[in-house]
UniProtKB/TrEMBL annotation:
Family matches, as InterPro entries: Homeodomain-like_sf (IPR009057), HTH_AraC (IPR018060), Tscrpt_reg_HTH_AraC_N (IPR009594)
One Pfam family, short name: HTH_18
Endpoints of the signal sequence: none
Gene Ontology molecular function terms on file: DNA-binding transcription factor activity; sequence-specific DNA binding
Keywords associated with the record: Transcription, Transcription regulation
Record domain HTH araC/xylS-type: where: 190-287
Protein name, as recorded: AraC family transcriptional regulator
Lineage start: Bacteria, Pseudomonadati, Pseudomonadota, Gammaproteobacteria, Alteromonadales
Matches recorded under PROSITE patterns: HTH_ARAC_FAMILY_2 (PS01124)
């Protein structure tokens, strides 16, 4: 990954950047960060250098060089990151394209593959997994392909498909398998989460969200908490606050305007919840 940084002049770059391979993003941070609320997008996160700790409800997940996470849905959580031995954090984020996922799952099922009880734990919480030899080799080849625009264009997507296949048959493959099962509870909640992220500024109710998942309110609450470890309204509030922070910090919006844009009708309620969530006022983060 450091070779990729050197080749593309990214030694002073902070944050996430798109690569020439669709759905693959590169991450670099010189010093890491203190514990803070973040919104992790769904997909595969591979860390090559540095360490991170994720806090989600009562779960604490540590991951470091050579570890990966699989997120079937976007997750509002808290994260702290650490640069080790004065070396920057380096990593890759890989999207899981739905049509590719369904194609691979269908092929695995047609060939008789089944998640056994040991490999496919019903617990859908976050856990880090060490890259095995085949996955590590595929990630290395992906990084080599990124150093050539021609190779990235011709074989990049094929290597991404290979990585997703190895994850499907690996320890966290059940997360993607469950995501591909259209009528399963996990897939239904995933579709609701996509709706929340697209329409968070609207007047969304639990009854409406449960109906869109074709579930009773009680079953919806239970399944939603199983997947996200949050209630639907807690999740929606965190998404709105994260979107408001982006508007204030990145686009220079005033707090009251940002509050209205993300779905708050009361600026005072927004200010209270913003300060409680980020431990800082909107004005402090904007300065």
């Amino acid at each position: 990954m450091q070779t990729y940084v050197d080749q593309h002049g990214l030694n002073s770059r902070e944050g996430i950047i798109d690569t020439t391979i669709p759905g693959v993003r590169f991450y670099r941070s010189s010093v890491g960060c203190e514990r803070q609320p973040l919104l992790y997008q769904s997909g595969i996160i591979i860390l090559a250098q540095g360490r991170k700790t994720i806090h989600l409800a009562d779960q604490h997940v540590n991951y470091g060089p050579g570890d990966y996470l699989v997120l079937g849905v976007p997750m509002p959580l808290e994260c702290e990151a650490f640069a080790i031995d004065d070396k920057p954090l380096l990593g890759l984020n890989i999207d899981v394209e739905p049509s590719l996922l369904h194609q691979q799952v269908d092929q695995l099922i047609r060939h008789g593959y089944q998640c056994n009880s040991e490999r496919c734990n019903p617990d859908l919480g976050l856990h880090s997994v060490q890259l095995d030899e085949r996955m590590a080799d595929a990630v290395k080849r992906l990084l080599i392909a990124l150093q050539s625009e021609v190779e990235a264009h011709i074989i990049g997507s094929a290597i991404v498909a290979e990585i997703i296949y190895y994850i499907l048959i690996g320890p966290k493959g059940h997360v993607l398998f469950d995501l591909a099962q259209h009528d399963g509870h996990y897939a239904r909640i995933a579709r609701v989460l996509n709706r929340i992220h697209q329409t968070y500024a609207e007047n969304l109710t639990v009854d409406d969200l449960a109906a869109s998942a074709n579930m009773s309110v009680s079953a919806f609450h239970r399944s939603f908490r199983q997947v996200t470890l949050e209630s639907p309204l807690q999740y929606l509030k965190k998404v709105r606050l994260m979107k408001a922070k982006e508007l204030i910090v990145n686009e220079g919006k005033r707090a009251n305007d940002a509050a209205l844009m993300v779905g708050y009708s009361s600026p005072s309620q927004f200010s209270r919840e913003f300060k409680r969530h980020f431990n800082a006022t909107p004005k402090a983060l904007a300065s």
